[in-house]
Write a structure and sequence with these properties.
With about 130 residues, the chain is α+β, with helices and mostly antiparallel strands. It is built from three helices and five strands, in the order αβββααββ. It has one domain: HIT family, subunit A, CATH 3.30.428. The protein has a five-stranded antiparallel sheet with strand order 1-2-3-5-4, covered by helices on one side. Adenosine monophosphate binds next to loops.
Length: about 130
C-alpha cells in the first residue's frame, strides 16, 4: 500500500504560508521551525518541503538532492542551536514518530530535534 499525502495537514499549511511559524532555518528543500508545544528548552521540527507522509516514504521516494538537503539541514540546526557535541554542545535527540504505533499526529514527515536538558532514556513508557 502506498502513501496518499493530505495537503490540508498543518505543516502543509505552514509551508504555504497560511499558518505562521517561528523559523529557525530554511533551505531549498527544507524548513526548520519551533514546535508550538515545546517539550524541552530547544524543540525544533525539521520538515522537507516535498509532500512526504513519513520517514520511510521520504527515504524510499525522495530525490538524492532532497535527502542530502534534509540531512544537512538537521546538522545545520544542531549547529545553530549550539547543541552539537562536536563543538562542545551537550547533545540532543532526534525523533520521527511514524504511523499508529509511532503516534504520529501530523501526516507530513517531521523530525523532532529536542535538546537543552537531560532527556532521560528512551521508551520508558513501554
Ligand atoms: P507528532 O506527534 O510527531 O506528529 O508531532 C506533531 C508536533 O507538531 C507536535 O509536537 C505539535 O506540538 C507540533 N505542532 C502542531 N501544530 C504546530 C504548529 N502550528 N506549529 C508548530 N508546531 C506544531
Amino acid at each position: 500500500m502506498g502513501y496518499l499525502y493530505d495537503d490540508q495537514n498543518i505543516f502543509a499549511k505552514i509551508l504555504r504560508g497560511e499558518i505562521p511559524n517561528t523559523t529557525v532555518l530554511e533551505t531549498e528543500h527544507c524548513l526548520a521551525f519551533r514546535d508550538i508545544s515545546a517539550q524541552a528548552p530547544e524543540h525544533v521540527l525539521v520538515i522537507p518541503k516535498g509532500p512526504y507522509v513519513c520517514f520511510d516514504h521520504f527515504a524510499n521516494t525522495a530525490s538524492a538532492e532532497e535527502i542530502v538537503d534534509f540531512t544537512r539541514a538537521i546538522g545545520q540546526v544542531t549547529s545553530a542551536l549550539k547543541v552539537d557535541p562536536g563543538t562542545g554542545g551537550d547533545g540532543y535527540r532526534l525523533l520521527a514518530n511514524t504511523g499508529k504505533d509511532g503516534v504520529q499526529d501530523v501526516p507530513h514527515l517531521h523530525v523532532h530535534l529536542v535538546a537543552g536538558r537531560p532527556l532521560g532514556r528512551m521508551l520508558r513508557d513501554g
